[in-house]
Amino acid sequence: MLSKPSQSSSKSAVSKSSSDEEVSACSKGSFSLTIFCSEHIGNNFYINVLLNLEDIYFFKLVCWRVFMHTKISSVGVYSPDRILSNKDLEKILDTDDNWITKRTGIKRRRIGRKDETNQTMAAEAAKNAIANYVGKFSPIEYIIVATNTSEKNFPNSAMYVQKKLREFNDDCVLSNAGGHDTSAGCAGINVALQEADALVRSEMYDNVLVVGSDKLSFVTDYSDRGTAVLFGDGASAYVLNSIDEKDSGFLGHYSFGDGFGQNYLTCEENQDKVNIFEAFSAVEDGREPLIEKGKVLKMDGKEVYEFVISNLCELVENFKDNKKLNPLGLDFEDLNAVIPHQANLRMFKAIDRKCPGFMEKCMVTIEDYGNTSTASQGVSYREFLENAKEGDTALSVGYGSGLMFSSNLYKVC
Predict the structure, then answer these.
(1) Phi and psi dihedrals of 64, rounded to 5?
(2) Residue among 69, 128, 156, 186 flagged as catalytic
(3) Is a pLDDT exceeding 50 seen at residue 18?
(4) Fewest CB atoms within 10 Å of the CB: 108, 220, 366, 376?
(5) In this structure, are residues 245 and 69 in contact, taking their beta carbons and an 8 Å threshold?
(6) How far apart are CA 25 and CA 53, in angstroms?
(7) Alpha-carbon torsion (351, 357, 361, 367), positive or negative
(8) One of 207, 326, 344, 371 is an active-site residue; which one?
């Protein structure tokens, strides 16, 4: 409401009207605009403004959505049908179930069909998230896909997901919904959630779909015992909606990296490899497997292992004082769950020895799924949200190629 103060009025004599009448002013001459104080009334945020035209006016600008936060309304998961057990790997590698279990905690992992890609799995996880949604569904306005295993550089996977969702249910996504892919190693899903939260908080979009999808079997050499035992395929999807609740939903994020470690975990082109289907066909035929050229994941396990343990321990120890991630200053002990990227159970146990109590909060699914990169946190997130009550908190953490590290703090609402 625009109001002209009396001659005796001071600058503090600001109209207290809470009306949301539209304020407009125009002048052929020059004018100045000065914000001199702000205040909270109820759920609204008011900015008191000094407007200097021919005379001095004061008015109150109402910012209705300053407290917008982002809620995870639904989580979807897609896992391929084929289960590759440690016993199966014994047939094609010089390894055994005990060695794999002791070093990784993995018993089995899922492997996609030849006709499945990171894009097809992403679309299936997105459909599952929408099918699991409870309540009135608002169409998706924007899509972010985190992936490291795209078969094509472009078009992006986000537009493939948009197309498949429109074929699935034209009401679930805007026909012109935009989107992009993001690549940050296994931390990609945490970075994507951070990006989506920023889009919602900025009021650019109210409804965003985030998907993490990777077909790591596509870039694995199944003659290499060091990597073949670790990886599986899968996808997870998150439907995010805006909420007008303070200190709810995503509370904060914290991402960082070390570019000097970029060579410790890479995907190299035109490398010798044995694909998984050829590996088993060769065993069945009693012959040596055929070598082909293609993309291959290369990893210095020791360096990556040390990077994760060092930085995850530091995150836990400094959690209360990390204002970007934890603006409310919560204690780590008060968290209800930690949802880490499922890289290696032995890694989690090593962190627990340095940070006692970590494993008590740690949600672990690696035994049944292996390392599925950007997809690996979805099963844990879904379980956490299904069993959580309002006010429960979870810390999700991703780490990997880059070297990248990214974390998100979430409060159930």
Answers:
(1) -65, -30
(2) 186
(3) no
(4) 108
(5) yes
(6) 9
(7) positive
(8) 371
